[in-house]
Every structure is written in structure tokens, then in C-alpha cells.
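Board notes (copied after class):
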Amino acid sequence: MPPQTIQIALGIAFLILSLGVHEAAHAYVADRCGDGTAREEGRLTLNPMAHIDPFMTIALPLILYMTSGFIFGGARPVPVNPMRLRYPLRDMSFVALAGPISNLILALLFSVALKAMIYWGGMPTSALAPRVMQMAVHFNIILAVFNMIPIPPLDGSRVMAYLLPNSLRESYVSLERFGLLIVLLLVMTGSLRMVLGATLGPMIDVVDMLTGGIW
């Protein structure tokens, strides 16, 4: 099997793992805040198989890579019942933040693994393992940034809904019916890729700094 094919396959495997952790983090915080819906449906698990969506998790990343060289995807959303949360508005923002925070933590862990391979393991940056780790870092930063865009129903919109005054909240939340269309338009026009591309560099610098820079 060609090295490039192996790299892509391993990259998608790490993307699926990261998406699973993202959804499990949502489920865990929701459960801690009083809503056990995700736990009852078997979604409070790090097993990525429980969170896979055939199109968003597998087909979409492959299609995007083959058509544009850009890999991105999503998982099956964790069910959350706001009415079971102790403080619905506040707790929904906590549940939403848990996913992107989990991706930032993964980015830090994969960055440490990458540096260990290079500085302790003596691997060249062109070797397969460091390249895959670098992809894993990038994927998790992109997932964190993308999900924090304040477009309903993305995670950032739950935080924004909590922060907005009551007079604006209802109108803002009502945009959710158009949210996926807005995201699709951002993808089709290239605006999403431009935003993520502009954010990736600075976020990589932050992750690099937090993991000790050059060892």
C-alpha cells in the first residue's frame, strides 16, 4: 500500500477517534449536569463506533480529500434534553464547550507525542508517524475552531445564546433552522476553509508554546 494512502487512512482514523472523544465529552458534561439521555442511549463512551455517522464521519472526509485535498467531517450528535439539565441555559453552554475543549486537549497530547517522536525518538519530520501526528494536531484544532463558530446549531451558538440578553436570544436561536444551510454556503463559497486556514497557524503556535516549544 502506498505511504500516502496509509497516511490518509491513519489520518481519518485519528479524525474518527477525535470526533468520538468530542461527542463523549458532550455526553459526560450533560450527564454531570443532570441529563442522562446520552448515557441511557449508550453514547457516554470513548468508543468511536458509538458516535459514527456513515456520511459525516467516513464518506464526507473521503469525498473532500479526493475533490479538494481538504479533510473534514463530523459525528452523530449526542442527544441532549435541556429540560433535564439543572440550569438549562447555562448548562447547555457547558455541554457545548466540552466538545471543543476536548479537541484542544487532544491537540496538546498529540503535539507532545509528535515532539517525543522527533526529539526523543529521532524520527525525521518526513516519517509516516510524525506526519500522522501532525495531521491529528491539525484536525483537533480545526474541530475546536469550527465548532466554536457561533452559527446555530454549532457549539459556539450555545455559548452565545447563554451570553446574549433575553431580548436578542429568541431571535438568535431561531436561526437554527437555517444553520446547516449557512454552514453549507460557507463550505461551498470557500469562506469556511479561509476562516479555518487563517486560524490554524496562530492556534498551532499556541499549542506549540503550551507543549514547550522546541524540546
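Comment from the instructor: The mean pLDDT is 91. Residues 142 and 197 are 9 Å apart (CA to CA).
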